[in-house]
Structure prediction request, 285 residues.
Amino acid sequence: MSFHTTGHGAQVGTTDRSEDGMTITDGTPERLDAGRTPDVPPSLQLEGVAYAYPDGHQALFGVDLQVGRGERVALLGPNGAGKTTLVLHLNGILAGGAGSVHVGGLPVVKDNLQEVRRRVGIVFQDPDDQLFMPTVRDDVAFGPANLGIRGAELDARVDRALAAVRLGDLADRPPYHLSFGQRRRAAVATVLAMEPEVIVLDEPSSNLDPASRRELAQILLSLDVTILMVTHDLPYALELCPRSVILSDGVIAADGPTKEILSDPDLLAANRLELPFGFDPRVLG
Prediction:
């Protein structure tokens, strides 16, 4: 596999599809077939998305990405690759650059932002950024209540979301009385209560002890939603996401099965990604 550098400094690969389906791209990736259902729009579709910040820093250079309904995809890349900028385009927090973003076929434009933000829920790296009400129940109810949902329907949504993250028995506890792992699960519940199509998770395994990490993984695997997981935790990506996308210097450098991507040391090194010492995905079943 050969690598070259594009004019804007992104180190990416020449287009090359291996027998296992991994695509290394020159900035215009071939889309994989996983998660695609005929006549059903993908959960996420980005076409030619480019973005420069007001100070002139160009963060994205014509990103094309499609995520099918029900897929679990890891978004990998070094710091400064453009991952946060890309995520903030998914629910319209950032806009104004080139290209288009659709969520379940709905264009991410000003007139659609309320529905787009219901469909795409973002779970921040720090759960305390999402928990600010007197009780966990109040936090989980906050989003749907702002959509005008009241009464029995609101209660049912809150109960379902708390049950999904195994916090039903802690619903009336103040968030600051929860452990860090419990607070992260509560943050996931605040998003689930909105009944989204897509959940975006920012570094979901960070600062979790092994048991909390395992519990969160079990919960995420049980959810019937599309998941885009931004992470530097490559073993967690392998555990949860059959597909991974590497973003490097604002372009997609690789898109394919997670195990194959993590088994390519040259690809990882070219994009400043490293596996933990002693971890070899090639020996896993």
In short: Residues 3-273 form a domain with the Rossmann fold fold (CATH 3.40.50.300). The radius of gyration is 19 Å.
